[in-house]
Amino acid sequence: MAKVEHNACLRENGGRGSRVRRGGAGDGSTRKTTQIPEEEEHDEEGTGVARRASTVVADARRRPGRRGGDPLLVLAYMLVYVEIAWLILLVVRAARLVIDGWGIPSADSPKDGDAIAAATTPVMDAFAKAVGGYTELEASSLAVGLPEGLMGNSEVGHLNIGAGRVVWQDVVRIDQSVRKDEFAQNPVVHETLTAAKNGTGRLHLCGLVSHGGVHSKQEHLYALLRAAKAVGVPHVYVHFFGDGRDTDPKSGAAYLKELLATMQEIGTGEIATLVGRYYAMDRDKRWDRTELALKGMVLGEGEASEDPLKTVEERYQKGENDEFLKPIVVGGQERRIQDNDNVFFFNYRSDRARQIVQLLGDVDRSPKPDFPYPKNITLVTMTQYKLGYPFRIAFQPQHMGNVLAEWLGKQGVPQVHVAETEKYAHVTFFFNGGVEKAFPLETRDESQDLVPSNKSVATYDLAPEMSAAGVAAQVAKRVNEDDDQDDHHHKFPFVMCNLAPPDMVGHTGVYDAAVVGCTATDKAIGTIYEACKQAGYVLFVTADHGNAEEMKFPDGKPKTSHTTNKVPLIMANAPRGWRLRRDVPGVLGDVAPTVLAAMGLPQPEEMTGQSLLEKE
What we know:
Blueprint: H1 7-13, E1 18-19, H2 48-61, H3 71-87, E2 90-91, E3 93-99, H4 115-118, H5 122-129, E4 134-138, H6 154-163, H7 170-179, H8 187-198, E5 202-208, H9 218-231, E6 235-242, H10 252-266, E7 270-276, H11 277-280, H12 287-299, E8 303-305, H13 308-317, E9 328-330, E10 342-345, H14 354-360, E11 378-383, E12 392-395, H15 404-410, E13 415-420, H16 421-430, E14 442-443, H17 446-449, E15 450-451, H18 468-479, E16 482-483, E17 486-490, E18 494-499, H19 501-506, H20 511-535, E19 537-543, E20 567-572, E21 578-580, E22 586-587, H21 591-599, E23 613-615
Helix pairs in contact: 2-3, 8-9, 9-10, 10-13, 18-20
């Protein structure tokens, strides 16, 4: 059977197609797919599958019985032959480029702070003017699963882009349960409080107390206090971790004052320990810091205080701030974490809570084996701090089934992801839905596709081009790479990549450097675009969040943070008659469905985003 080359299909797809390794509906329908065993794939002549099909048909004809074989059996095998031939199909090749920190300025964005507008960007300028190839997406707040009004970030952006749905962050899920008065009915929360009531009568609530919203929320602590009151836990002790990093360095006194008033209003709760996050939330394996916090929480070692608010204010006068508070111990031994107690950690962000629960919860005490840990405590965490930890979890992680990378593998589409060091985790771990390992047919060759970031500079304003040119060159190489077994077909029908300068240089606050970085980024996009045209790929360009378009506050001071502005979605080198919809509000979670529609592949039901692609 000769190699399939459907000219009509090629015209529709805007270029040569790529064979996939398993069947998929070329028209975007939800037709069930059939797996082709490895031994039945095409050989160089395109006859491997056909030869097997011809063999089974010939075998049917040789079967004894009716003259010429059993017609029904021959027909059945011929249908198999046709189905297998259908699996030798062509899909549209696609490249997806995420520009980190490339937003669209709002009406309120200071014009003299727009580093993108000041840069030389002929490629992106032309894309923005292309009829049908440009639309805008929401990349912050509830549109990406964050609390209302909160700016997006690289991790959340890539999660949504790769998942093809709004990925609700843990904080939003907890917020919603509190808002709907469902928090106290959470089975793990309720059972923990009941166990504390029926056990030692002591419940310890541990976590960061501030309105920073990065690691925890005071509203969640208040919800725990109200639930404990409703259950009737006799003694509730709060171990207060000072912030001062995501908040003003000396704002902890106000947060403590608010907490004391709320506990009085609810009618339960007492302060047991105050200690800065520098000690209680270390994540750099500085175990002496973690031990210092535990000495206060477990042994009562620290500055004794009957008035913690006054003590904190006195510490301020001595030059100490919230982050670096050494233990302040309130009350006697009854407020310490003791044998058989119940302990609830209410931080929802995991990374800075791992060390202290590792020791206290007896996961691995080898860093501090001689500490007199309390025995037989029950430790519970708000969210999953690490896979494999034995603790009960109040809010289990979301199931992220059939993200784009996984789904492409199931459809038999080989893929590769390219980025420089600073963003490689984003195009792999985060883009893949928080999964560390590669999915089937996903190539990870870090010797090629992880382009080294410039480590010779302390900050990227000193080298604002970063490694954008290197990333572009590697993407160009990958899109032009032929299949090892068939040089008429491309090795990677899907290529994912990231360009970092607008975000990483934007974070430095150095406007002129960001202009240079954006210029270099546009040049890199041009390199990728030319390669896509040459190889017949449809190029999709978007951003994970804004940054470089708004580098100044209205008062002229440098702005280094992300923005809540929209981001572009661009489709380039697409067939005639294709266009991106602008009549519906798009979000980052719509990008994956749009790419699947362009490639002619079905959209899994787990992807609740909508395709923004229209084909005439």
